[in-house]
Amino acid sequence: VAIGLPTSVARVMTVPLTRAFRNDLPEVRLSISEGLSGAILGGLNSGHLDLVVLYNAQPSRETDVAHLLDEDLVLVRARPPGLLEDPPPGPIALSEVARLPLVIPTRPNAIRMHVESEMAQIGCRLKVALEIDGVSAILDLVADGAGAALLSRNAVTSCVRPSAYQVRAVTDPPLRTRLCLATSSMRRATLTQQTTLAIIRQAMAGLG
Question: CA–CA separation, 50 vs 106, rounded Å?
Answer without folding.
Answer: 26
